[in-house]
């Protein structure tokens, strides 16, 4: 009787070990498959976002080599202007004009009511054009500007076209 009890307990222990081994090996396989699926989804999402970002930045001075080459006057004896330093300078000069009591003159809009129009966001498209978003707190619009970098490194702006959205 004692031998058969020990035999049953031994067989039961072997079966429990087999079931435990199968459970944990399948759990590891399931975890690896889930990790692979998640990794694939994340890579696809990253590639999609990177593609959208590249598409959105197509019209920008940072990614337009022809526009960047416009500022390289060193071949003709002139001074080269680094576009990496130019972008924040142009943006800052344009935003500094928001301090004007009548509003930024390069929004293409006169002051309406008590609030002045100021430029909120600026994107430099290439060596000549800027698009900017402006508002007076109630009305919003966009403006397409031309900008010029003079020989003395001063910057001039010119309103090309402005649009004010209806309420």
From TrEMBL:
Arranged from A to Z, the UniProt key words for this protein are: Membrane, Transmembrane, Transmembrane helix
Q: Does the record's keyword annotation contain Membrane? A: yes
Which protein are we looking at?
A: Hydrolase
Q: Which organism is it from?
A: Flavobacterium frigidimaris
Spans through the membrane: 6-24
Has the keyword Membrane been applied to this entry? yes
